[in-house]
Amino acid sequence: MTVALGAPLEQILALLCAWIAIGAVGLVRPASLKIAGRTLFPLGAVCGAAIAVVAAIHLAQPPERMILPIGLPALPMHLRLDALSATFLVLLGAASAGISLFGAGYFRVGQGTAPGLLCFEYHLFLASMGFVLLADDAYAFMVAWETMAVSSYFLVTSQHRIGEIRRAGYLYLLIAHLGALAILLCFGVLQGGSWRFTFDAMRAAHLSGGWAAAAFLLALAGFGAKAGLVPLHVWLPEAHPAAPSPVSALMSGVMLKIAIYGMLRVAFDLLHGLPGWWGLVPVALGLFSALYGIVFAAAQTDMKRLLAYSSIENVGILFTGLGLAMVFRGAAMPTVAALALVAVLYHALNHAFMKSLLFLGTGSVLHSTGERNLGRLGGLIHRMPWVAWLTLVGVLAIAGLPPLNGFVSEWLLLQAFLHAHEVPYPFVDMLLPLGAGMVALVGALAGYVMVKFYGVVFLGQPREPSLARAHDAGRTERAGLAWLALGCVALGLLPATIVPALGTVASSLGVGSLPAGGGPWWMLAPLGPQSISYAPPVFAGTVIAGVLLTMLVVRLTYRRPVRRAPPWTCGAGPLTGRTQDTAEGFGQPIRHFFTPWFAMRRSLPTPFDAAPRYSVEIGDRIWRALYEPLAGWVDRGAAICAVFQRGRISTYLLYALATLCLLLALVL
Amino acid sequence: MGQMPFVMQLLDTLAALLLLLSFAMLAQRRIATLVELFALQGGVLCAATLLLAWRTGDDNLVLSAALTLGVKVLALPWLLRRMIRRLDVYWDTDPLLHIPGTMLVGVLIVVFSFGLAQPISALASTATRSAIGIAVAVILLAFLTMITRRKAMSQVIGFLSMENGLFFGAMSATYGMPMIVELGVALDVLVAMLVLGVFFFQIREQFDSLDLERLESHQGGR
Questions:
Q1: Residue A638 sits at the chain B interface (C-beta within 8 Å)
Q2: Which residues of B touch A648 (CB under 8 A)?
Q3: Does A642 touch chain B (CB under 8 A)?
Q4: What ipTM was predicted for this assembly?
Q5: What ranges do the domains of chain A cover?
Q6: Chain B residue with Cα closest to A668
Q7: Does B132 reside within a domain?
Q8: CB contact A517 to B (< 8 Å)
Q9: Residue A73: CB partners within 8 Å, gap ≥ 6?
Q10: What is the pLDDT of residues B57-99, one digit of tens each?
Q11: How many CA atoms within 13 Å lie on the side-chain side of B6?
């Protein structure tokens, strides 16, 4: 097969070009929803699935290279397909297949960007992410990276007539460019005086300790900005609600992982000579981001903002694992380092599926009810059973419950953390295991947040009469959701086959390798058969058997007729949509425990108010403490510059003349 | 300096004439006259180029002389005159700095330019090296013309005159730029002129005047 179709790299390149071509076809008749929705998006989904298959086959093979003679003269684009990029191509292809399928039924003709144009931006976004993964020199990487940023900016602002959305898009673009600047500088340091910007030259470069640290911190800032690491996270809760749901799914599920890929590429492939304890920086930032994200998620009342904060939490977990792998690598503990790295890769895959699934679920809810506010939803499981049950899979997965996939990666990460006391650095060996407790706390809070999300949206009674008109998702949308839910289940049940495959990434990067021969297909024992193990199919089987057995026993033993009666209401009349827990109410304990974290503005009614109103506004302290002063400084700097900006052509010419004379006098 | 050949003396005279014309442009307030001065400057430049071509036997210089004649003596002044007629701008308003003051600044600039040109002249191996100072002075005086004028029209003429100075500088330092560059520059100047012409009409349409002060009151919200 490979002989007839060329090398895997060529096949993937052809598929990426097919994505661009599909997008370009959308431009032919931009107003036609039929062409874009019914034909092009499903085709894009097929391309995505094909990319995932090709990349998965290639996973264990040696790296493959190619030089594309396009771009600037004497500056061709170097491409490379290795195990790391193949893993993320699987992620990109598989997750985007589900999202594209959903998008086929989702986009409507509306106020914003025309469907054909949206189709172009969407597929350009997909293709540019693919090219980021294939790039093997700084030039190709930056071109693809910026294409990704700009195309996603246009996708975020597709409802550009709304001022709030334009503002969110601007914030996103601003932080994306600051990040890109940091990445560019990072590559500038990484070339190490060779002035060649291929990744091969960077691999060969030897940096002194200070420069290596500078490169690492620049990469952390640049990729962290794109991934949403605190304190560069502020764009995420703004941009995700602003974007159409498939775009939010793509950005949160896939694009954040592309940033993780970049960080992995720099930290484990390009950068050498960095002491392992530098890994503590991403560990600390990651743990803080995780806790920060999940605490804020608990306090949100907008379902997409809630998911955006949950993405910050997951990015935090990913960075924690990444840092942990660096520490272990530096401490010459290759097996555990590989375990931590595999946990990162596994969690990236998991999060791509489950977060995409949840964002698409909110998209369906938004379409059928027109509401994003949790306070106006409820009881949708009766109206939208498909969406509700498929979303439940994602909710259980992201809450980290076995036998679904979220549990596997958190379990792997905790396993890695449990070896942290063996690290041969003083204090670190004592402090690092505390991180395991933090991860557990975050996991528990994630469960709490997901109960809130699912319970308020789908369970209970409708909070608005208009919700009675809600309708279930269309057929293609269901297919997209089902694909992603299936991914969550498969990743949850088959870790024993997936973990060794991801282990090849760790060994190909020279981090270390997991012991071979872990056991049967249903038993995950990453550190060898004697050590700790987890058997998800057995677990799932036990749960299902237990439930079925209980049902059977009840059915057989309980013989009295069922009596239906209204529940006791303390004499207050029938229960309505207002007599149930709200999103604010459910999040209140967290707001109470973590009060100093929030910038809260609350107005409480007094007992004598004729029309009592309660309102609470949750602000981000980091926004006030960091971004507002920063904006103030920029404003003040601009005011100083404005003295020179008189708006008179004569004055400007005078500046030019003075500069010219000065330079001439200096040169001669 | 010893005895200079007659041709070189003639060339120096032409260079001096060029500088004199720059000063005349600096002092002139009538835009129509400014155009004629500019055309005259182009003519002097053309003559100097021809003289140098005859002296060095360089065919390329003949071509650039022809280019100068075509573009700077005939085409551009014709375009400018037509524009003045159409836009009805014969006079500039009072310059930002009164004329005697401008002339004094101009004198200072000439002194500065000769000071600047001294080391270059010492390095240059061409026969015309004494003219480099004058070329620099012409450029900077044209700049000064642009700074002190209020009408967009006179600023454009100043800009074109600056190009004359650059051309003369290149000629005296290295016997002219490569032909391809000269062609490109000539084309650029023509295109710029056409574009600016369009702008003039637009500006007048918007503000009923070519006076730049009207534009300045319309700068972005500050």
A1: no
A2: 212, 216
A3: yes
A4: 0.79
A5: 1-203, 275-509, 594-602+615-667
A6: B116
A7: yes
A8: no
A9: none
A10: 888 888 888 988 998 899 889 988 988 888 887 777 667 778 8
A11: 1
